[in-house]
Automatic annotation (TrEMBL):
The keyword Cell membrane does not apply. It is a single-pass membrane protein. Residues 1048-1468 form the Translocation and assembly module TamB C-terminal domain. This is Translocation and assembly module TamB C-terminal domain-containing protein. The keyword Transferase does not apply. It holds the Pfam family TamB. It is found in: Membrane. It comes from Adhaeribacter arboris.
Length: 1526
C-alpha cells in the first residue's frame, strides 16, 4: 500500500508539471492560431472561455479562465484559471499566469521558449475522498488521457521543442488530503498536507529526460498542521525519480539551518513517508545548526528531546544506519564531540549499535541526562565535565569503552565492557581499568568510607552501589583512600561485595605492610568469616584508625559466624602481636578472642593476651547490655545533678522495662599493659596482674558492682601500694533513687614530695541525694595521722560540703575541725562560700571564712595563728621549723585577684640550716591600684634578704615588680626551685635580683655571688663545691666557666645555662671539662643496673628537660674507679628511698613494704637518658656480679671502652669491650663450695646492647697443692704438688659454655712422662676430665683411674670417704665464711678432705688479712706447722720454726694504688732419686709503678695542687672496695 502511495505521489508531481505545461501549451497554441483574429483581450477571453467550456464537457471537469491577455510572440497573461474536480471542489487554481516568451513564431511554431513563468497565487488541492477509489488528480489525469488519445495510424510529426528558463511562484498553496487516513497528532502528516505561503524563484531550469535541474532561490513555505516553516532554501537542486540533490545548500527550517550539501536517494518519492528506513542521505555539513524539535517533525521519536546540535562533517546512510566522518559536534551546555561515528538503529537510541572513534572531546553529564536512566544519572552526574578520547563500540546499554577519560573525579583509562541496566545494581562491567586519583568515594556516594583511587588491572563486577556492588579485582592499586587515609602499593586478586569478600590482598604501604587471604561470606543465614592476615607493620595513628601513635604487628586468624554483636560466635587469634607506642614496645605475643554460647543459652566472651585478659559470662545479649548499661550511667549522672524538674521529665517519658532479667559477670586482668595505658593516661600506672571482677544485673533493679586488689597504683607523683577498690551501685528502673558506695583502701602511699604515708581509707555512700564520706590516713613510722568525715549534699544548683568533727594528729598533737562548718559551691565553681572552717590545736589555728566570688566586693580570708612549720614536714618531706603567723584576704579571685597579707616566721630553719626571721606584708595602694610588697629575712638583726616592690593585679603578663637584695643570704632558699635537679644546697650568696613576671612564672634578672656553695647532683649522687657568680636573666640561669670541686678537691670547669619559663619547663645545657674528677658515686641501692664510683678525665654534658634529660659523659677512667654490673636480677623486697632505674626488659613483681629507707635521697629518673662512654684503663676495677648473695663475682681490671646507656624509657644498654689485665673469679657451687679463680690476662668481655647478653672469653685458674695419684708417681708419696684447674668461659654472660682442664706446675722432670700420659688419657674422655677437675675443687685430690681393682674392692669405702670428704669440705667452707664474717679484713679457706688421722694431717690452710685500710695485704697457703703433709719419709724432720707453704705480702705504697710492692716466700718439696726428698725455699720480690699520661710533658710536669677553701674530704660511697677490706 505504501509503495502504491509513493508511486502515486511521484506521478502526481510529474503529472502536475505536465498538466501545467500542457495546459499552458494548449492554450498558447490555441491562441496562437487565432492571434491574428483575436488581438483583443476581451475577444481572447471570450474565445478561451468557450474553449474551456468545451474542454470541461470533454473531460468531465469544469475548467474556467477569468481573463486572457495574449501579446503574440512575447507574452501571455492568464487570470483566475481554475479546474474543479468531479466533486466540484477546487483542484487547480492560479490567480495569474504571466509568461514571457521567446523564439516562438508562425514559421517556427514547434519551438517555444519561456524565459520566465510567473505564477501568482497558484493553488493545488489533491484529495482522496472517502467514497472514491482514486485521488481527484488521478481522475482528472485519466480524463485528459482519454481526450488526448494518440492516433497510432498517423505518421509521427516533428517533436515540439519547449524550454523554460525561469519560474517564479508567489503566495502559492498546496493541499493534499487523504480522507481515508486518520490525521496524526504530531509531526508532518504526509496524508494531510496543508502548505501555503509558497514563494520561490527558480532559474537554470533544465529537463534531462525525467530529471529536472534547477537553481532555487528564496524558497519559502508554511505547512500549517505541523507548523513547519521553511524560512529559506537556496540550492542548486536536481530532482530525479530516484534521488533528490541539493548543492550549495542553505536550508532554514524553523530554527534549524543546514549548509553545504545534501542528497536524498530513494526508490520512489513516496519513500519520504518512511524517511528513516527508506531514504539514504549523503550530507556534507558545515557549521549547521540542527534542533531536535525540527527533526521531530519528520522523526516524532525525538519530539521530547528539545535539543540543539551544531554540527560539521560528512555523513552517508540512512537515519537507521549511517556512517559519519570528521564529525565536529556541539551539543547541550558543554558537550563537544570530535571524531567518526557509525550507527545502526536510530532513532531508537537504546537499540542503536554505535561505533564511535573520538578525537579529544568533551561531554557534560547534564547534557546527557535525558539519555540516562534516572537511577544511573546520579552516578554519571558526579563525573562532571568529562574530557575523553578513544573508541566506543556497542549499544547504549552494552558497549566497550577503550579510551581515556579526564573527569571531575579524576582520570580513567579503560578497555572495558559496560552493560547498563535500568536497575543500577544489575549493571555489569568487565575489562581493563586504569585510574589516576579517581574519587571513587564521590562516584559511589560514600566519601566517608572511600576516597580517591589510583590503580590498573582487570575488573569484573556488578552494580555501582556500595551496598549491593560485587567486584572482582585483579589489579595493582598504587593508592586508595579509605577512611581518610591514602593506602599505597596494593596488589589484590579478590572478589569484593557486601555479601562476599574473598581472595588475596597484599599491601606495602609506608604505614601498613599486610598480606591477607580468606573469605567473608555474608550471603548465608549466619555470615561466616574465614581470614588469615599477616600485618608486619600498621601505624594506626597514621592510618587514622586511632588518635595515638600505635604501631601494630601481628598474624591474625579469624574464624567466626554472625554479623551483629548478638550473634557473633567463633574465635579470632593474633600471633606474635606487638604494639609500639613511641619508643615503647608492647608485646602482646598471642591474643585470642572467643565468643561462644552453650546449650542453656549462656553466652561467654573471652579475650586473652600477654597484656590483659577479659571475660564476660551470663545470659545476656551484647547489644542489650550496652544499651542498659549506658542508660544506667546516664541516670546516675542525672541523679547526681539533683535537677528535680529534669529528673521528673525524664522518668515521665521513660518506658517501663519489658525485657527479660539477665546477669553478666565480668573479669578483667591487667597483666602487662602499662605501656599501652601510658599512651592514653601517661600519668597512670597499674601493677601487673591486677584483677578486676564485676557483675551487672538487670531486672526490676539495675545493680552493678566492681572490685579489685591493686598491688601498686601510681598517678603522676602520687603512689599507692597494696590497695583495694570496690564500687557497688543499684537503682530502681523508674525511680531516681540511687544507693551506691565507693570504698578505696591503701596500705602505703607516697604523695609527690611528701613523706610516706599508710593506711589510707576512703569511703563514700550515696543514698538518695546525699553522699556521706569518711577518710583516714597516717604517716609511715610516725604518729601523724588524720581522720576526716562529712557529707556532700546537692541543694538546687549547688554542692554543699560539711566536715564533721574530725581528728588530725600531727607530731603527737591532736588537731580538730570545728563543727558547724560548711562549704557551698555554685555557679559552676565560680562562687564558693566558706563558713566557720577552722583547724586548730591549742593556740595554733588555721581559719578560713568568706567568699571566693566574681564579685570584687566579697573576699575570702585565711588567718593562721602560732602555726609551727614543723607540722608541714609530713606534707613537704622537708625538714622545716619555725612559727608562722599570717593573715591573708583575697578578692576577685576569678578575675584579677587582689591578695592582702601580713606574715611573720620566727626562727625559720630548712633541714639543719638556719635561715632567719621572716617578716613581710602586702598592702593595697589605692592611688596606684597595686599591692605593695615588703618581705625580709633577718639574721642577727641584719636583713640578709630584702624583697620589696609591688604587684599589679591589672597586669596579666607582668604583675610582679620586685627587687630582691641578698646579703649573706643562705643559698638553701633557692633549693625548692632547683630540687628536680639538685639537692642538699648550702652556702651563702650576695647580689641583687629583679623579680618580674607572674606569680606562677617569675622572671629573675640579676646575679648572685655564691660563697662556699655546695650541692648534690641527684642523678649522679655526687657532691660538688664552688665559689663563683651565677647570672640570672629572664629566660635562663647562666654559669660562666665556674670551677667546681669534687670531694677529693679535684676540679672541673662548668659552663652553660639552665633555661626556663618562669622556673617551669626547665631545660639544661651545661657542659663540663674535668680531670681526675668524680662523675659517678652510686650504690646498688640507688641503681640496680650498674653502680659504683667513677673517677675520670674528659667531658660531660647535661642537656634537655628534667623529664627528658640527657647526661653524657665521655671520658677515660682514673685510679679509684670501680664499676659494678649486677646480673643476678635481685630486687629489694622493700621500696628504698633512692634513685630507681626501671628495666622494662626484665620482669619484676610489684612489691609492698612498710619500712622506710634510711637517709638515702630519692629521685625519679623516668625520662632520663644516661650515657657514660668510658675508656677503661687498668687503674679501674670492673665487677660483674652473678650472685651477690653467694659471692659469685668476676672482678678485675683491664683496658677497653664501654658505653653504659639508659634511655628515657629506662632501657639499659651496654656496648664495648674490656680486655682483662688482672682479674679474679670467685666460683661458687650451691652456696657450699667457694673457690677463688685467677683470671689470666688477655681475656675479654664484650657487650653489644643487652647487658645481660654480653659475650665473655675468659680463662680462669685455681691451683691446689695435692698428693698425686700412684698411677703418676708409681709409688706412695705424701708430697704435695701444685695442680691447676683451668676453666675456659666462652659465650653469653648468663649462660657461658664452660670447658675444664688440668695443668701441672713445678713437678719433677722425672714425672713428666707419666703426667703427659695421664693428661692425654683424661683429655680424651671429657666426662673423666670433668670428674677429675671437680675432684680437685671439691675433694682436693685426683682419683686414680688405673687402679680399678682397688676401686672395685673398696667401692663402699670410697663412697663413704667421698661422702665424708664432701661433708668435710662443706664444713671447711662454712668455717672459713664464719671466720671471715668476724673480721671483714680476714679471709680463710680451710681444705679438709676427711676426718681420718692422715686427712687431718693433710689439712690445707689458705688465709689472707688486710691492714691499714687495704694498704697491706698478707697471704699464706699451705699446711699447719708440725704437719708432715709434704713427705711420708721418717728421715724428713721439720724444724720447729719452719712454716711450710707460700707466704705473700702486697703493699700499696700510695693510696691510689699506682705504686705497689710485692714480696713472696715459697717452701716447695722436691723428690730426687739420688738425694731423696727435700724442700727448697725461695724469696722473690717486685715493685710496680703505673702512671697514665697523654704526653711526655704531662708525665714529667710537676703538679701544683692549690688548696683553696680546703674542706674535709667526703667519705667515698663504695661497697666492696680493695682498700676497705674485700
Amino acid at each position: 500500500m505504501e509503495n502504491k502511495t509513493n508511486n502515486k505521489w511521484t506521478g502526481v508531481i510529474k503529472t502536475t508539471l505536465r498538466i501545467v505545461i500542457g495546459l499552458f501549451l494548449f492554450i498558447v497554441l490555441l491562441l496562437a492560431g487565432l492571434m491574428f483574429a483575436l488581438r483583443q483581450s476581451s475577444i481572447q477571453t471570450s474565445v478561451v472561455q468557450k474553449a474551456s467550456k468545451i474542454l470541461s464537457a470533454k473531460i468531465g471537469h469544469q475548467v474556467t479562465i477569468g481573463r486572457v491577455d495574449i501579446r503574440f510572440f512575447n507574452k501571455v497573461i492568464l487570470e483566475k484559471v481554475k479546474v474543479l474536480d468531479r466533486n466540484q471542489e477546487e483542484l487547480f487554481y492560479i490567480g495569474e499566469v504571466e509568461a514571457s516568451l521567446s523564439g516562438f513564431s508562425l514559421q517556427n511554431y514547434r519551438k517555444l521558449t519561456i524565459e520566465t513563468l510567473k505564477l501568482t497565487q497558484p493553488h493545488a488541492a489533491f484529495v482522496r475522498y472517502k467514497t472514491a477509489d482514486s485521488m481527484n488528480l488521478s481522475v482528472f489525469l485519466a480524463s485528459l488521457k482519454k481526450l488526448m488519445k494518440t492516433d497510432t495510424t498517423k505518421t509521427a510529426k516533428t517533436k515540439f521543442d519547449f524550454n523554460i528558463y525561469g519560474l517564479e511562484i508567489q503566495n502559492g498553496y498546496f493541499r493534499y488530503d487523504n480522507q481515508k487516513r486518520e490525521p496524526v497528532a504530531f509531526g508532518m502528516d504526509y496524508q494531510h498536507l496543508d502548505i501555503d505561503s509558497i514563494n520561490v524563484k527558480i532559474s537554470e531550469i533544465a529537463f534531462l529526460g525525467d530529471t529536472i535541474s534547477m537553481h532555487l532561490t528564496d524558497l519559502q513555505a508554511h505547512e500549517h498542521k505541523s507548523n513547519t516553516k521553511l524560512k529559506n532554501l537556496d540550492a542548486h537542486m536536481i530532482y530525479a525519480p530516484t534521488f533528490w540533490e541539493f548543492a550549495d545548500l542553505d536550508l532554514r527550517v524553523n530554527k534549524s539551518n543546514l549548509g553545504h550539501y545534501v542528497r536524498f536517494d530513494y526508490k520512489r518519492f513516496w519513500n519520504f513517508t518512511s524517511f528513516n528506513d527508506s531514504v539514504r542521505v549523503t550530507a556534507s555539513l558545515d557549521s549547521s545548526a540542527v534542533f531536535s524539535d525540527d527533526i521531530a517533525i519528520f522523526a516524532p521519536q525525538l519530539k521530547d528531546w528539545h535539543e540543539k546540535i551544531l554540527i560539521s562533517g560528512e555523513a552517508k546512510g540512512y537515519v537507521r544506519r549511517f556512517n559519519a566522518q570528521n564529525i565536529d559536534l556541539y551539543y547541550g551546555e558543554k558537550t563537544h564531540i570530535v571524531g567518526n561515528l557509525s550507527a545502526d538503529g536510530l532513532p531508537r537510541y537504546k537499540e542503536t549499535f554505535a561505533d564511535i572513534k573520538l578525537k579529544p572531546s568533551v561531554i557534560l553529564a547534564r547534557d546527557l541526562k535525558k539519555f540516562i536512566p534516572a537511577k544511573n544519572y546520579a552516578l554519571v552526574e558526579r563525573l562532571g565535565t568529562v574530557k575523553l578520547q578513544g573508541d566506543f563500540l556497542g549499544f547504549y546499554s552494552d558497549f566497550v569503552a577503550h579510551g581515556s577519560f579526564a573527569t571531575a573525579l579524576g582520570k580513567v583509562v579503560s578497555d572495558i565492557n559496560l552493560k547498563i541496566n535500568k536497575n543500577p545494581d544489575l549493571s555489569t562491567y568487565k575489562g581493563y581499568l586504569k585510574t589516576d586519583r579517581f574519587a571513587l568515594g564521590k562516584f559511589i556516594g560514600n566519601v566517608r568510607t572511600l576516597q580517591s583511587i589510583t590503580m590498573n588491572g582487570q575488573v569484573k563486577g556488578t552494580g555501582f552501589n556500595l551496598a549491593s556492588a560485587r567486584l572482582n579485582l585483579d589489579a595493582t592499586i598504587q593508592s586508595v583512600g579509605i577512611l581518610g587515609y591514602n593506602y599505597r602499593y596494593i596488589t589484590t586478586d579478590a572478589t569484593l561485595s557486601q555479601e562476599l569478600v574473598a581472595g588475596k590482598l597484599n599491601i606495602k604501604d609506608p604505614n601498613l605492610e599486610l598480606t591477607a587471604d580468606g573469605k567473608i561470606n555474608l550471603s548465608q543465614k549466619k555470615p561466616t568469616f574465614d581470614l588469615k592476615t599477616t600485618i608486619n607493620r600498621a601505624n594506626l595513628q597514621a592510618l587514622k584508625l586511632l588518635n595515638k601513635n600505635f604501631v601494630l604487628q601481628t598474624k591474625a586468624s579469624l574464624n567466626f559466624t554472625g554479623l551483629t554483636l548478638d550473634n557473633l560466635l567463633g574465635q579470632a587469634t593474633f600471633q606474635n602481636t606487638t604494639l609500639t607506642y613511641g619508643k615503647e614496645i608492647i608485646n602482646f605475643d598471642s591474643v585470642s578472642i572467643q565468643s561462644s554460647r552453650n546449650q542453656q543459652g549462656q553466652r561467654s566472651i573471652a579475650a586473652s593476651s600477654k597484656i590483659l585478659d577479659f571475660s564476660a559470662t551470663g545470659n545476656f545479649e551484647v547489644s542489650r547490655f550496652i544499651t542498659d548499661f549506658t542508660t544506667f550511667v546516664r541516670e546516675d549522672i542525672l541523679s547526681f545533678k539533683s535537677n528535680q524538674s529534669a529528673s521528673e521529665a525524664y522518668y515521665q517519658q521513660k518506658k517501663n522495662y519489658t525485657g527479660q532479667d539477665y546477669e553478666l559477670n565480668l573479669a578483667f586482668r591487667f597483666k602487662q599493659g602499662n605501656s599501652f595505658l601510658k599512651a592514653y593516661v601517661p600519668e597512670l600506672y597499674l601493677a601487673e596482674n591486677t584483677l578486676f571482677t564485676g557483675n551487672f544485673r538487670q531486672g526490676r533493679n539495675s545493680i552493678f558492682n566492681l572490685y579489685s586488689h591493686l598491688d601498686t597504683l601510681i598517678y603522676g607523683n602520687y603512689k599507692f601500694y597494696n590497695n583495694d577498690f570496690e564500687i557497688n551501685n543499684s537503682k530502681l528502673q523508674n525511680s531516681p533513687t540511687v544507693l551506691a558506695s565507693v570504698v578505696f583502701s591503701s596500705r602505703n602511699q607516697q604523695f609527690a614530695g611528701a613523706a610516706p604515708s599508710e593506711n589510707l581509707f576512703l569511703e563514700g555512700i550515696w543514698n538518695d541525694s546525699t553522699i556521706n564520706f569518711a577518710t583516714n590516713i597516717a604517716q609511715t613510722n610516725s604518729t601523724n595521722k588524720a581522720s576526716v568525715s562529712g557529707n556532700i549534699s546537692f541543694p538546687p544548683d549547688k554542692v554543699q560540703i560539711i566536715l564533721n568533727q574530725s581528728n588530725i594528729n600531727i607530731l603527737g598533737k591532736q588537731w580538730s575541725i570545728r563543727p558547724n562548718n560548711n562549704i557551698l559551691i555554685g555557679a559552676a565553681g565560680k562562687e564558693i562560700e566558706v563558713n566557720g572552717l577552722e583547724l586548730f590545736y591549742g593556740n595554733q589555728s588555721v581559719n578560713v571564712t568568706g567568699q571566693a566570688s566574681r564579685n570584687p566586693e566579697k573576699e575570702l580570708v585565711m588567718e593562721i595563728k602560732n602555726f609551727q612549720l614543723e607540722n608541714l614536714v609530713p606534707l613537704l618531706n622537708q625538714q622545716i621549723y619555725g612559727i608562722l603567723n599570717a593573715r591573708a584576704s583575697a578578692s576577685n579571685l576569678f578575675n584579677k585577684s587582689i591578695i592582702l597579707s601580713k606574715l611573720s616566721v620566727d626562727s625559720l630553719r630548712l633541714d639543719s640550716i638556719y635561715i632567719g626571721e621572716i617578716s613581710g606584708s602586702t598592702d593595697w595602694d589605692k592611688n596606684e591600684d597595686k599591692i605593695k610588697v615588703d618581705l625580709g629575712v633577718f639574721r642577727s638583726n641584719m636583713r640578709v634578704v630584702s624583697v620589696t616592690g609591688d604587684y599589679n593585679p591589672q597586669s596579666e603578663n607582668n604583675p610582679l615588680n620586685l627587687l630582691a637584695v641578698m646579703d649573706e643570704a643562705p643559698i638553701k632558699l633557692v633549693e625548692p626551685l632547683l630540687k628536680t635537679l639538685f639537692s642538699d644546697l648550702s652556702g651563702i650568696m650576695e647580689g641583687r635580683v629583679q623579680i618580674n613576671g607572674r606569680l606562677n612564672a617569675p622572671v629573675l634578672i640579676g646575679s648572685a655571688f655564691v660563697t662556699n656553695g655546695r650541692f648534690r647532683v641527684n642523678y649522679l649522687n655526687t657532691y660538688y663545691s664552688f665559689s663563683d657568680r651565677i647570672y640570672f636573666s629572664d629566660k635562663d640561669i647562666t654559669f660562666r666557666n665556674i670551677k667546681i670541686r669534687d670531694m677529693f678537691t679535684n676540679s672541673a670547669v662548668i659552663a652553660g645555662t639552665i633555661q626556663h619559663e618562669g622556673f617551669r619547663n626547665m631545660s639544661l645545657d651545661l657542659k663540663g671539662d674535668f680531670r681526675k674528677f668524680m662523675v659517678l658515686n652510686t650504690t646498688r641501692a640507688e641503681n640496680s643496673l650498674y653502680y659504683g664510683t667513677a673517677i675520670a678525665t674528659g667531658t660531660a654534658s647535661l642537656t634537655g628537660t628534667p623529664s627528658n634529660l640527657s647526661i653524657n659523659v665521655n671520658a677515660r677512667s682514673e685510679a679509684g674507679t670501680k664499676m659494678s654490673i649486677p646480673l643476678d636480677g635481685q630486687q629489694e623486697a622493700k621500696r628504698q628511698s633512692y634513685i630507681q632505674f626501671v628495666n622494662h626488659k626484665r620482669l619484676r613483681q610489684d612489691s609492698v613494704a612498710t619500712d622506710s629507707a634510711a637517709d638515702v635521697p630519692r629521685v625519679d629518673l623516668a625520662g632520663i637518658k644516661l650515657n657514660f662512654n668510658l675508656g677503661i684503663t687498668d687503674d679501674a676495677e670492673l665487677e660483674i656480679i652473678f650472685d651477690e648473695e653467694t659471692g659469685d663475682i668476676v672482678r678485675g681490671s683491664g683496658n677497653g671502652r664501654i658505653n653504659l646507656n639508659i634511655d628515657t624509657r629506662g632501657e639499659f644498654t651496654m656496648d664495648g669491650q674490656v680486655e682483662i689485665v688482672k682479674g679474679y673469679y670467685n666460683f661458687t657451687l650451691y652456696n657450699i663450695i667457694r673457690k677463688g679463680f685467677n683470671i689470666r690476662p688477655g681475656g675479654t668481655i664484650t657487650w653489644n646492647g643487652d647487658p645481660y647478653a654480653g659475650i665473655m672469653d675468659l680463662t680462669a685458674t685455681y691451683t691446689q697443692r695435692i698428693v698425686l695419684p700412684v698411677s703418676i708417681t708409681q709409688e706412695q708419696s705424701n708430697i704435695r704438688y701444685p695442680v691447676t684447674a683451668v676453666m675456659d668461659l666462652e659465650g653469653r654472660l648468663l649462660a657461658p659454655e664452660i670447658k675444664l682442664n688440668l695443668e701441672f706446675e713445678d713437678t719433677p722432670s722425672t714425672l713428666e712422662t707419666q703426667i703427659n700420659a695421664y693428661l692425654a688419657d683424661i683429655r680424651n674422655n671429657q666426662d673423666e676430665l670433668n670428674r677429675q677437675v671437680f675432684n680437685l675443687l671439691i675433694l682436693k685430690r685426683l682419683s686414680d683411674p688405673s687402679n680399678t681393682a682397688q676401686a672395685n674392692v673398696g667401692a663402699q669405702v670410697d663412697n663413704a670417704l667421698g661422702l665424708t670428704s664432701s661433708l668435710s669440705q662443706a664444713l671447711s667452707n662454712q668455717l672459713g665464711n664464719l671466720i671471715s664474717q668476724l673480721d671483714s679484713n680476714l679471709e680463710i679457706d680451710i681444705g679438709l678432705d676427711g676426718f681420718s688421722n692422715q686427712q687431718i694431717n693433710d689439712l690445707q690452710l689458705r688465709l689472707s688479712y688486710s691492714l691499714f685500710k687495704g694498704r697491706l695485704r698478707l697471704s699464706h697457703e699451705g699446711g699447719l706447722p708440725g704437719s708432715n703433709n709434704y713427705t711420708n719419709s721418717t728421715n724428713y724432720n721439720q724444724t720447729g720454726t719452719e712454716v711450710p707453704g707460700s707466704w705473700r705480702a702486697d703493699v700499696y705504697l700510695r693510696a691510689d694504688g699506682k705504686l705497689r710492692l710485692k714480696l713472696e716466700y715459697n717452701i716447695t718439696p722436691y723428690s730426687y732419686s739420688t738425694f731423696g726428698q727435700t724442700t727448697v725455699s725461695s724469696l722473690r720480690g717486685s715493685i710496680l709503678h703505673t702512671e697514665r699520661f697523654d704526653t711526655f710533658s704531662e708525665l714529667f710536669a710537676r703538679r701544683k695542687m692549690r688548696r683553696r677553701d680546703r674542706k674535709a674530704t667526703e667519705k667515698i660511697i663504695i661497697d666492696s672496695d680493695d682498700r676497705v677490706g674485700l
